[in-house]
Amino acid sequence: MMEIYWGSPMTLESSTAGTQRKVTTIEEAQYCLQHAWPLSDTTRDSALEQVEAAMVCMVSVRDARAAFLSAARAAGFRARQDGDVQSL
User: Fold this and answer.
1) Are 52 and 45 in contact, with CB atoms under 8 Å apart?
2) Quick one: which of 13, 41, 53, 78 could link to 58 by a disulfide (CB 3.0–4.6 Å)?
3) Three-state secondary structure along the chain?
4) What is the pTM of this model?
């Protein structure tokens, strides 16, 4: 299996639970969306489709990351990348 570069690691912070999860690979993003996501909605479903398509080079990783971050925002997460905290 070919390794797909995900880009800079990001940490998702739950505003309600106070927990953090570091996502460093596209496989971790896929796992989070499938097994550890607080909402099952169309934003999450779309992000999962984009991530899985990027894993087989059908869409860009940039698009998959954007969809992942959009789903994170919809689920109430904040993302920290490269030491900066951004409210999603």
Assistant:
1) no
2) 53
3) CCCCCCCCCEEEEECCCCCEEEECCHHHHHHHHHHCCCCCCHHHHHHHHHHHHHHCCCCCHHHHHHHHHHHHHHCCEEEEECCEEEEC
4) 0.87
Residue holding tokens 């934003």? 43
Q: Which of 68, 73, 38 is nearest to 51 (CA)?
A: 68
| Structural tokens at position 26 | 């596209």
CA distance 74 to 43: 7
Q: Of the candidates 63, 64, 69, which has an alpha carbon nearest to the alpha carbon of residue 11?
A: 69
CB 31 within 8 A of CB 25: no
pLDDT tens digits, 7-56: 999 999 987 878 899 999 999 999 999 999 998 999 999 999 999 999 99
